[in-house]
């Protein structure tokens, strides 16, 4: 951009869109332009180091119909103009005048649009004119004499709405236009930055910030609905009639004052019905048991687990007394009870009930029955939540094979099993196969359900979880925004699925560095989940874990440490000591303890994390390698180089086998190994590892800058103790470029 421009951009907007203007102004001025393109000449001029200042302040407008001298001069001094487009802007006299003034400067090609509401060209559509978002001066080319012509213009626009580009991509589109560089290149660069920030707290970076996969809260809600349909089909005619009669009665208002001017909610109706079942249906035990089971699963689908458990448990009890232990209805209620107990994180009880349901269903219905496949799926979920991934895998595969035999290759229940298998393989370290299966599941959901369905919401959420772990942050963000929009379309704002989607959007804000917005959402969600799930639940722990990392990112390591210790206590209590999430918390606390110089404490925590991961995954898994790499770094800091060398070497060999060639995690382990070799005075061997690892980390966009810097420091330190200061200086000089 030419040096004589005082402002990088002039933001034109209606004051009704002031929140958007504030966001855009801050977003542009805080954007860090990649160093490798600063100073480059483009058709927009020389690329600056920062996009600041940006002009947006026009609180004191003159009363005349023409723009005041201040604004006219500010427009003249601005390299570009950005118009925030909305119906309010389209009706604004001042916005239109600002566009016209800027066009009269001969700079039509430097005007960029940010759509925040309304529709472009709606003024050409009868009956939709009030939705037009482009001001009049934006829609027409300039003619002779400085007046607008009848020729239609083609505004350059980015759409910040969820259904458009989204805020992140819209910002990048504007910046790419302002700089005169390609959007794709800038987008890739931004993706690398976001991933660098995220690596501080992702699973691959030892500690595991969680995107809620959807399984923990909403994974089986749609399946419950399907089971409900099978349940109703099995009820005998008379029982069905009695059930219907009772349910209709729930909607009758015996006292007119109950309904006068009031709204009766579904929850109130359910609570009323639950209170009546026990007393009014004592002489109709089959109907009573059926309604207890049915209403319990409805409570479950609403996320009201505490209300669901006693109803379904009583249904099991009643059905046992009527039919005995060996009956399909007993197995059905046991299955439902196991489901809701799993959602409440009562995993041992859930496993016991689901194993009994599985045995009864196999004996009575045969191993190929769809009910057996369903219970296999539920039991696999419980084993997964307990961290026993290897035991869950054969159950999922059996369920998948059974469903394919029953329903064919493309069916919602086949998609269920594909999702479950994909997530299981991810947990066991097979990332590529996991992504393949989850993409198939999403495609199958779209084919069988259309574009708005609870199962599709879950599938998209789960795919986002995995592609984020793979480093594709942009795709993960797009999927999460789609999932949030879908959840809000499908559910009430208080539903667990909406909470899941919102927690993931909070995660997106977090990795984008919008810490205040993320913190506010985390705290609100934590309060909501505690109300629904209780104070101590794995999902609550996951949100608190994310909040701890947010405090760390904001520079408050003490607050982060205190919160993560609470998370560790909660996870030990709810999940037991031998669980992957416990190891993640141990890694986090150890990493921060090392930064505080508490090396002995960090070592103890990391050794425990290594033992947990080996117990769960065996001794050859990326999670084990992650903890070993951290442990090696801790030992290097204590100058225990022999041990550090062994652990780092073992970690590197694991990652060489598990990861693609040249992977940054392998390089990270190599860096720790090189540091240990340097401490052993094996300088030539150390140099080979440290140079290679520093080169890989410097070029890999997935490695966060702190890790790159640490690798560089190790290489510089090697050259200094080796007596090669000129090479140390070369590394330092290269790092500054």
Could you please describe the fold and organization of this structure?
- This protein is mainly α.
- A five-stranded parallel β-sheet has the order 4-1-5-6-9, sandwiched between helices. Strands 2-3 form a two-stranded antiparallel ribbon.
- Helix 20 runs antiparallel to helix 21 (454-469) and helix 27 runs antiparallel to helix 28.
- The longest helix is centred in the middle third of the chain and has 19 residues, at 305-323.
- The two termini are 22 Å apart.
Average pLDDT confidence is: 82
Percent strand: under 5%
Tally of DSSP helical segments: 34
- Quote the distance from N terminus to C terminus: 22 Å
Unreliable runs, pLDDT <50, ≥5 residues?
59-65, 188-238, 251-264
Bin the helical content.
55-70%
Q: What is the number of strand segments?
A: 9
Structural class: mainly alpha
Cα gyration radius (Å): 30 Å
Shape: flat
Spatial arrangement of strands, main beta sheet: 4-1-5-6-9
Largest sheet: 5 strands, parallel
